[in-house]
Amino acid sequence: MVNNLWYKNAVFYQISIRAFKDSNGDGRGDLNGLTEKLDYLQTLGVDCIWIMPIYPSPLRDDGYDIADYYSVDSAYGSLDQFKVLIEAAHRRDIRIIMDLVLNHTSDAHPWFQSARSDRNSPYRDYYVWSDTDEKYKDARIIFVDTEKSNWTWDEKAGQYFWHRFYSTQPDLNYDNPNVQEEMLNVARFWLDLGIDGFRADAVPYLFEREGTNCENLPETHAYLKKLRAFMDEHYPGRILLCEANQWPEDVRPYFGDGDEFHMGFHFPIMPRIYMALKKGRYEDMAQIMRRTPPIPENCQWCTFLRNHDELTLEMVTEEERQWMWKEYAPEPRMKLNLGIRRRLAPLLDNDRRKIELANSLLFTLPGSPIVYYGDEIGMGDNLDLPDRNGVRTPMQWDDSPHAGFTSGTPFTEPIQQGVLGYQHVNVASQLKDPNSLFHTIQKMIRLRKKHTAFSGSDMQWVETGNPAVAVYVREHDGETIIVLNNLSDVHQTVRLPTAHQKIGRELFSDRSFTLKEQVTLQPYSYLWFLAEY
Ligand code: NOJ
After folding, report:
1. Is the separation of the CB atoms in 203 and 244 below 8 Å?
2. 309 CB under 6 A from ligand 1?
3. What DSSP state is assigned to residue 104?
4. Does ligand 1 have an atom closer than 6 angstroms to the CB of 55?
5. Best of 14, 16, 64 to mutate for ligand 1, by most ligand atoms within 8 A of CB?
6. Does residue 282 have its Cβ closer than 6 Å to ligand 1?
7. What angle do CA 167, 247, 299 make, to 5 degrees?
8. I want to staple 89 with a disulfide (CB 3.0 to 4.6 A). Which of 94, 214, 289, 446 is the partner?
C-alpha cells in the first residue's frame, strides 16, 4: 500500500552534491558520485535525501542563484544521470527531494538579462523594479554582512531592482501571473523526472507590500497553496518542505489546514538545543516547544542540528544572540550575519558525549530529523574558507589522499588539520569500529524509526525538580517512551512522579529496566526508556 504520509516518520539527510563524492576525477562531487554512495546512506538508515541546488549557476550563492531551472549543471552530471540516481535511490527505498528556489533567480538568468536590457521585454515584469530605493523600507536585510540595501541600482536597466539576498539574486515578481505559472512549470518538470518533492527555499519573501515587513504575507500563502494543490492533484505522495526561518506561530500558517506545506523546518528549537547544552538547563527548549502550536494531522516538523548555512540566531532575542556568540563563536571569524559558521562537532568541543546528547534530543523531539552530511561521523569545519564554505567541505570517506572524495584535485581540500582531519575522522574507519559515532547515530536512526511513539506530535515535559535534565514523554499509537537527557557535565538525579515510574526497556542497551522514583544519570548521558507496563 502506498503510504502518502511517509515523511511523518522518516529520517532525512542533507547533501551538497559538490562536496559528497566525485566520480570522474574533476575534483567536484557529482550525481554519479552520490549514486555510488547510496549503499552507505542505506546502511545509515536514511529514508529521504535533500540535495542542495544542482542547477546551472554562477555560484555566487552556491547554486541558490539559478541561471536555468530546467537542467543540471554539467559539473554535476546530466539529467539522465539524475534519473539514474533517482531510480537507484528508489530501489533502496530512499526518496530524494531537491531545492526549489522560488523567490529569486541569478542575475545571469536569461530572464533577468532580458529584463534589464529592455524595458519592453516580456521578462521586465518578472522582477521588481523601482525608480527609487525608498520602497518597502520595513523589510529587513538578511545578509547583513554584505548587503546594505534590498535595492540595487542597475545601470543597464536604469532602475533599482529588489533582492532579499545577495545583489546577484534579483527577486522574482509574484504579482506577475506569468512568474507564478513559470514556477509551477519548473516544479512539474522535476516531479515528472521522478523526484519526491521539494525543499522550498526562502518562501516568506515571495511578495512585497508597502507598510509590511514583506514576510509571510497572505498573498504568499495563497500562492503556496496553489503550488500544493497542483502537487496534490498531479503528484500525490510528493512533499513540500518549508524553509521559513520564523517563530513557531509564524511558521504555523505555512501548514495551512493541511493544504499548504507537508513539512516545515523548526528553526527556533535548534539554537535552544545548543543553549541547553551550554547552560546545562532545559528551560529554553521547553519554552519554545510550549510556544509551538499544534499542526494539522498530515503535517510534520523537520528538526535539525546543523545545515549548510550558518547556525542561525535569527530566532532568539538580542541578548540570547550575544550570549550564543560569546559561548560558541569566541573568534570573530566564526560569526556570519546573524549566526555562527561552524559545524556540529567543533561547536560541541568534539566531545563525543555532547554530540551524542545533541543527537538524542534531535531524534526524540517531535518532528522528522534531518542529518547534515558528515555530522554522522563528526566532521569538522574550515574557518579559513569564506562565507559558509567552511561547513561545505568534502565528505571524508577514508584516509587516502583527499579523503577518498576525489582522485583529482578537490575543489577545496577536505579537513586535514588536527583531530578532525580526514586521517582521523572518516567513514571507512567508523564503519569498522562498532563503537564509532556513526554506529551510535545509525542506532538512533533505527530506534527512531522503529518506535511509533516518536512519529506522533505528542510531547509532555515531566517536572522532576531538576532543571539540568530534560525529561519528556513521547506517546503515540499506544506506545510510550520516556526520554531523559542530562544536559550538564556532572551526575544528576531526578525524581520521577509516580505516573512515570514504570517497568520497561532501555532502548540502547535493550535491557529490562525499572524507572524508579530516583534516577541518576552520568554527565551528558541520555536514556530512551520504552514503558512496557
Ligand atoms: C536559504 C538557503 O539555505 C541559503 O543557503 C541561501 O543563501 C538563501 N536561502 C538564498 O537562497
Report:
1. yes
2. yes
3. B
4. no
5. 64
6. no
7. 105
8. 94
Q: How far apart are CA 405 and CA 414, in angstroms?
A: 8
Regarding the beta carbon of 61 and ligand 1, being less than 6 Å apart is answered yes
- Which grid cell sits at 34? 552520490
Q: Ligand 1 centroid vs 201 CA: distance in angstroms?
A: 7
| 200 Cα–ligand 1 center, Å | 10
pTM: 0.98
Is the shortest distance between the CB of 165 and ligand 1 below 6 Å? yes
The alpha-carbon radius of gyration of the chain (Å, integer) is: 23
CA 438-451-355 angle, 5° bins: 30
Q: What is the per-residue DSSP string for 37-83?
A: THHHHHHHT-SEEEEPP-S----TTTTSS-S-TTS--TTT--HHHHH
Q: Rounded to the nearest 5°, which phi and psi values hold at 443?
A: -65, -40
The vertex-269 CA angle with 255 and 211, nearest 5°, equals: 55
CB 310, CB 334: distance < 8 Å: no
Contact 458, 443 (CB under 8 A): no
* Kind of pairing between the strands at 129-130 and 159-162: antiparallel
From 69, 98, 163, 201, give the residue whose CB has the most ligand 1 atoms within 8 Å, as the site to mutate: 201
Alpha-carbon distance values, 464 to 115, 490, 503 (Å): 62, 17, 18
Cell for 283? 528551560
Give per-10-residue mean pLDDT for the chain (533 aa).
91 98 98 98 98 98 98 98 98 98 98 98 98 98 96 98 98 98 98 98 98 98 98 98 97 98 98 98 98 97 98 98 98 97 98 98 98 98 98 98 98 96 98 98 98 93 97 96 98 95 94 93 98 89
Number of separate helices (H) and strands (E) present in the chain: 15, 22
Query: Active-site positions?
Result: 201, 243
Identify the residue whose C-alpha is closest to ligand 1 atom 5: 309
Look-up of cell digits 527505498: 93
